[in-house]
Amino acid sequence: MTSPETPIVLKSVSKSYVTPPVLVVKEVSLAIRKGEFFCLIGPSGCGKSTVIKMIAGIEAPTSGTIERPARLGMVFQSYALLPWLTVEDNVSFAAKMQGFAPDKVAAVTAHYLRMVHLETFTERYPRELSGGQRQRVGIARALAVEPNVLLMDEPFSALDPVMTDQLHDDVLRIWGETGKTIVMVSHNFAEAVRLADRVGIIKDGRLEGIVDLKLPRPRQEDDAAFTAEVHNLRKRLEAPGA
Amino acid sequence: MKMKRYSHYRRKPLYETTLAHHLWSAAIAGAIAVGFAVVLIHFAYPRNEFDINRVSYGVVALAALNTFDRMTLAFVLSLVAAVPLALFIGSTPRLQSILLPIADILQSVPVLAFFPVVVGFFVARNAFEFAAVFVIFLSMLWNIVFPVIGGLQTIPEDVNSAALVFNVKGVRKFWYITLPAIFPFIVTGSLLAWAQGWTIVIVAEVLHTYIPNGKISQDLLGLGSLLVDSNTQGRNGVFIATLTAMIVLVTLLNLVVWQPLLHLSQRFRFD
Questions:
Q1: Contacts of residue B12 in chain A, CB cutoff 8 Å?
Q2: How many CB atoms lie within 10 A of CB B264?
Q3: Rg for chain B, CA atoms, rounded
Q4: How many angstroms separate the CA atoms of A42 and A186, rounded?
Q5: In what order do the strands lie in the sheet with A181-186?
Q6: Which residues in chain A are contacts of B172 at CB distance < 8 A?
Q7: Long-range CB contacts (within 8 A, 24+) of A75-78
Q8: A207 forms bridges with which residues in the sheet?
Q9: How buried is residue A38: exposed, middle or buried, by Cβ count under 10 Å (0-12/13-18/19+)?
Q10: Could you report the per-residue pLDDT of A188-203, keeping only the tens digit for each?
Q11: Is A75 helix (H, G, I), strand (E, B) or coil?
Q12: Who's near B250: CB < 8 A, 6+ residues apart?
């Protein structure tokens, strides 16, 4: 059962496709703790995005069970914004679809646009924004549905390094301000070490282990301990039969 | 102070509208309503009698109106049929793999091959107007179906996923995501459909050639029939006047309808 302490629980979750026949996720069991920043990491095609899509309800597991809260927010790699809606409407649209009263829609829209520093961009269209700004809209939209858990599927992989650094800071600040549980998928070791409390290592569809990161925050990439954790993650992922 | 700065959010609707928006919408709705009234009157009281040897500018103008009415009715019917058909064909990859080749074969059959049968069917029921409308409709249909099927494929997978996560399903998904996403393709398909319609109308109004022992008097008054009949009867003045009327009508439609719609549709395209 989902409990207040573990809002997401996966039990022996597998996913296979018929055409072509392939088993992409194999017997993954995992419990996400309330308020933690959890990162799933692994190489391209390892099944990590499939895991987060199953958590989101986008894909159904072939076997196993997933317990999750009723309301989730999700941030996508390609932003998934509607080009015909302004920044403000993209955010308020998601809130409206939850059945919130108009006053609440307006309040959460304003609140989260302020939180991602886009309060002066409300009337812009997505195509008029930079990649980083678009992803900020994606984050505000995900938060505007007042989710119990925020899911992020490689949210920074389409951005340049400078923009990625800024958004890392923003996400950490938002995480601190909201206390949301965050589950993120990434293939970037340094990103995982910078952001996460725990890192789940996925290889060939299997959850090979979970690394508890004890580094104090804020974490600096030039710290020796930081570099050691990145090295440790890489070693664990690259180990044969890991 | 900050809350005051954003206080406009409190009463602002989801999609902002102003008085200018409402007036513009009312003007467009009014123009469409008048247009449909004209079309309905045309089909309730068709005026098709003409003598190719006595054609005034007034007759050319009436012919232009008649042709426009037929094209409009055929277009509306093809739009109403094409969009649901495209949505059905494109609804699942499996359905698409079965129905798309069938649609492809159907669209490759020349519309005019149906024409003698269509004319025979409608003429037997004394429905001359609908013989022309039906053929124009057939010529327009596939021009909208295929772009709309293509448009459905442009909706990014992440947008469909976001719709699921944010509880945008069923009718709400159609209204808020699918319809806006296919709007540019409806516009480009409609442009192609009208272009095809202008080609076919020249034949579709000249019914007498498809009726055994047909006479010119059985043709529908329109730009198409005036062009063909004036040409065969050597009425060069009428031919030039009719051709000019057709060019003016096509240009006006392009400037007033298609260019603004094409411009608007750019906003609805995924990058």
A1: 106
A2: 13
A3: 23
A4: 7
A5: A72-75, A149-153, A181-186, A37-41, A198-203, A206-212
A6: 97
A7: A75/A135, A75/A138, A75/A139, A75/A142, A75/A150, A75/A151, A75/A152, A75/A153, A75/A155, A76/A138, A76/A153, A76/A155, A76/B158, A76/B161, A76/B162, A77/A153, A77/A154, A77/A155, A77/A157, A77/A158, A77/B158, A78/A158, A78/B156, A78/B158
A8: A202
A9: buried
A10: 999 999 999 999 999 9
A11: strand
A12: B198
- Which residue type sits at B89? I
ipTM field = 0.91
Selection from B39, B34, B64, B25 nearest residue B253 by Cα: B64
Instruction: Decide: A38 and A85 in contact? Cβ < 8 Å.
Output: no
Please give the Cα distance from B172 to A60 (Å, whole number): 22
CA distance A59 to B158: 12
Question: Quick check: B143 and B196 in contact, CB under 8 A?
Answer: yes
Residue B14 DSSP code: S
CATH class of the structural domain A33-61+71-179+194-238: alpha beta
Give the pLDDT means over successive 10-residue stretches in chain A (242 positions): 80 89 92 96 91 95 94 95 96 95 95 94 94 95 95 92 91 93 95 95 93 90 91 85 54
CA pseudo-torsion sign A185, A181, A170, B270: positive
Q: Is A79 in contact with B168 (Cβ distance < 8 A)?
A: no
In the numeric block, the tokens 């976001």 are attached to B162
> Tell me, what DSSP letter sits at residue A126?
G
Hunting for tokens 């064909």 — which residue is that?
Answer: B89
Q: Give the closest residue to A119 by CA, choosing from B1, B162, B2, B267.
A: B2
**Whose structure tokens read 């059945």?**
A99
CB contact under 8 A, A76 and B270: no
d(CA B247, CA A138): 48
B43-74: per-residue pLDDT in tens?
888 787 888 888 889 999 999 999 999 999 99
Domains in chain B, start-ordered, CATH in brackets? Answer: 56-268 (1.10.3720.10)
pLDDT value at position A158? Answer: 86
pTM: 0.85
Question: Is residue B176 within 8 angstroms of chain A, CB to CB?
Answer: yes
CA distances from B247 to A67, B62, B64, B143 (A): 65, 15, 10, 22
Q: What DSSP state is assigned to residue A84? A: T
- Measure in Å the smallest separation between the Cα of B85 and chain A Cα atoms: 24
